[in-house]
Design goal:
single chain, two-stranded antiparallel ribbon, 2 domains, mainly alpha
Length: about 150
């Protein structure tokens, strides 16, 4: 599961305020003057806000776990078959692309071994670049023709 640092930062901030922060308390005495008293939390105690955040996170994790269970159960056999077929088609496209690039590399090596002059190497590199570009074009068109992956909706 991918985690974000934002919830952790919020928890740390709330915990820091709840555990280490000093809260000023204003008191008015009989003469009408206001005195400020600083009250620090007890060591090892958790503030109510921190407890609420921890409880909310636990509740969220439980709900997420339940959602994942129902999402997996909701996948129909037809949907699973469609996903499998789509993945196999993508795999076939990628294998064909890799094979085309490998053959272009082999052709370039063979051309350079046959004639190692500068002009021959440049011509082999141009042919290699053209072959790879053509393979990329074929792969891109095949993926476009394949369409979007299946969805449950």
């Amino acid at each position: 599961m991918k985690r974000s640092i934002r919830p952790v930062a919020v928890i740390v901030a709330v915990a820091t305020i709840g555990l280490f922060g000093a809260s000023p308390v204003l008191a008015e005495d009989a003469s009408g003057t206001t005195a400020t008293t600083v009250v620090s939390p007890k060591a090892g105690s958790r503030g109510a806000a921190t407890k609420a955040v921890v409880a909310a996170i636990r509740e969220y994790r439980a709900a997420l776990k339940e959602y994942v269970k129902t999402a997996k159960k909701g996948a129909t056999p037809e949907f699973k078959a469609a996903v499998k077929a789509y993945a196999e088609a993508r795999r076939t496209i990628e294998v064909a692309y890799r094979d085309a690039v490998k053959s272009a590399i082999g052709a370039r090596k063979a051309a350079i071994q046959a004639d190692s002059s500068k002009a021959a190497r440049q011509a082999a590199q141009v042919a290699f670049t053209d072959a790879v570009s053509a393979a990329q074009s074929v792969r891109t068109q095949a993926i476009a023709d394949l369409g979007n992956p299946p969805s449950k909706s």
